[in-house]
Amino acid sequence: MTSDALTTWLHTRHHTDWTHTLTTPPTAPFTPTRDGFTHWCHTTVHPRDPQRARRLLAAHQLTTRDARRGAPLTPRLTAHWQQRVLGTPDPPPLRTHPAHAKNGAERYGLRPNTWTTYARALAQSRQPHVPLPARAARAYLDVAFFHPFEDGNARAALLTLVFVLAREGRGLDQVGPLQLPRHADDPAGAQDLIRLVDTLVRCAALRARS
User: Fold this and answer.
1) CB 175 within 8 A of CB 203
2) Which domains does the chain show, CATH number per domain?
3) Closest Cα partner for 67 from 133, 151, 199, 161?
4) Residues of the chain below pLDDT 50
């Protein structure tokens, strides 16, 4: 039987040092020279699936608006974004049964406290003692491995990462390097994602100020 990736992720999450991966000072708020998510939608997603691109852009408009007003990151908020991602008439509900991904290689279980745990995890995207790139990376992985929706969780995870950065005045001018598979049992991979997000933010800041 396939192991429970969510349980594995919660163990990995607990044992990952989110506070000391980065040693350089954080960047000051800045506006990137281009919106990396929008650019990715136009150049990568649209040629393959124009409708998916349009829906992602609509969802991104919501995340940008919510970031500007400093909205708390909650399951309800992400469901409103996911409504645009999937093109459904209403925000999709959180899943009510175990789910699978990666062609069945990963199984995401469900317990009575799964969604309260998920809500607490998303709320930690504002922990002041954790560097912003680590909080953004962790929120991305939370969405990926809690796997809250029936469909579109990878897209939801990327939107969440971009939102966490934008809410604190940082942006990315490219998101393509983030499009790699992640694994629940990989604490080194979680650390690598933190460093990647930090690098992408710093490079965007440098280009914005040049």
Assistant:
1) no
2) 5-16+28-209 (1.10.3290.10)
3) 161
4) none
Q: Output the pLDDT for position 180.
A: 87
Which one-letter amino acid corresponds to residue 128? P
**Per-residue pLDDT at 165:** 98
Provide φ and ψ at 33, rounded to 5°.
Answer: -65, -25
Helix axes 132-146, 5-15, angle to 10 degrees: 160
What's the pTM value of the predicted model, to 2 decimals?
0.97
Quick check: helix, strand or coil at residue 101? strand
Considering Cα of 82, then 170, then 165, then 162, what sign does the dihedral take? Answer: positive
The whole-angstrom separation of Cα 52 and Cα 58 is 10
For 7, 90, 126, the CA distances from 95, given in Å and listed in that order, are: 16, 15, 25
CA-to-CA distance for 89 and 113, rounded, in angstroms?
28
